[in-house]
Design a protein that fits this description.
By secondary structure, this protein is of the alpha/beta class. It has one domain: Rossmann fold, CATH 3.40.50. 40% of the residues lie in helices and 14% in strands. The strands form 2 sheets. The chain has a 7-stranded parallel sheet with strand order 3-2-1-4-5-6-7, with helices on both faces. The protein has a two-stranded antiparallel ribbon with strand order 8-9. Helix 1 packs across helix 7, helix 3 packs parallel to helix 4 and helix 4 runs parallel beside helix 5. The two termini are 14 Å apart.
Length: 276
């Protein structure tokens, strides 16, 4: 993928203090974008998981890219509004919105508390919906835009009889991602005529991140587990957000499948090339 594909674009990536969000922010910056990195974590001591928005920005700037950090709690309406307003003030209108932020509890339905349920839907469904509402007027005015919602294979229905090895307590997580995918295709249809692309992107396999390790989705003790590097998701995200909006929109895409379709290979360092 060209390293100037997003030259002059402003990109807002949520949940970008670590993992997939950080990888997308770094890849988009290498492709020429000015990236706004947002999440709650600004102090390493404040989270059980490694990574902060300032660390992501530092990595981008050390690599020659342009990025700013704006902390925000996306579970709050006022914080979402402030995030977009501050982005407009600091770097200008948003060309690309990547909704990656998540708060996840793997708790069986019978034990799932109302507070946790509300928080998960607020961050993983309501926040992407609201942020889309906030950025779409600017995209429509400019005549183009891209919205990418990061989903998961958990959105797919389980098979029966259930796999006893599969992590339990994922019903609510699957609900949020299924809702996000249906929102993506619905919105894509609504704004197609406005030249705005809306897609959902999932990894083909579990991605080793601080979050997936914390939730034991990555079995560090199992050398045979096949995982997907974050760079694969980042490259697939770029492929969806760097072409004419009506070219690739309304898709529920899986990262490696998409890259195979486009003939793009990714090495572990994150660079890409077209397969011959």
């Amino acid at each position: 993928m060209s390293d100037d594909a997003l030259s002059g674009k402003v990109v807002l990536v949520t949940g970008a203090s670590r993992g997939i969000g950080a990888a997308i922010a770094e890849r988009f910056a290498r492709s020429g974008a000015t990236v706004v990195v947002t999440a709650r974590t600004v102090d390493p001591a404040a989270s059980k998981l490694a990574g902060t928005i300032h660390e992501t920005v530092e990595k981008i700037t050390q690599g020659g890219g342009t990025a700013v950090a704006i902390a925000a709690d996306l579970s709050k309406v006022s914080e979402r509004e402030r995030l977009v307003a501050e982005t407009l003030k600091q770097v200008g209108p948003i060309d690309v919105l990547v909704n990656n932020a998540a708060v996840t509890y793997f708790i069986p339905v019978l034990g799932f508390g109302a507070k946790q349920f509300q928080l998960m839907f607020e961050v993983e469904v309501t926040a992407p919906f609201h942020l889309a509402q906030l950025v779409l007027p600017g995209m429509i005015e400019k005549g183009e835009g891209w919205i990418l919602n990061i989903s998961s294979g958990a959105a797919r229905h389980p098979t029966f009889p259930p796999d006893p090895a599969r992590l339990g307590g994922g019903a609510v997580y699957g609900m949020t991602k299924a809702a996000l995918e249906r929102f993506s295709t619905g919105l894509a249809s609504e704004v197609y005529a406005n030249n705005v692309a809306v897609n959902a992107l999932s990894p083909n396999r579990v991605v080793p991140t601080p979050g997936t390790v914390f939730h034991h989705l990555v079995r560090t003790e199992d050398p045979n587990q096949v995982v997907e590097p974050p760079e694969v998701m980042a490259e697939a995200a770029l492929a969806l957000c760097s072409v004419s909006p009506t070219t690739r929109t309304g898709r529920i895409a899986y990262s490696q499948d998409l890259l195979n379709e486009l003939g793009i290979t990714v090495n572990v360092a994150g660079s890409s090339e077209l397969s011959s």
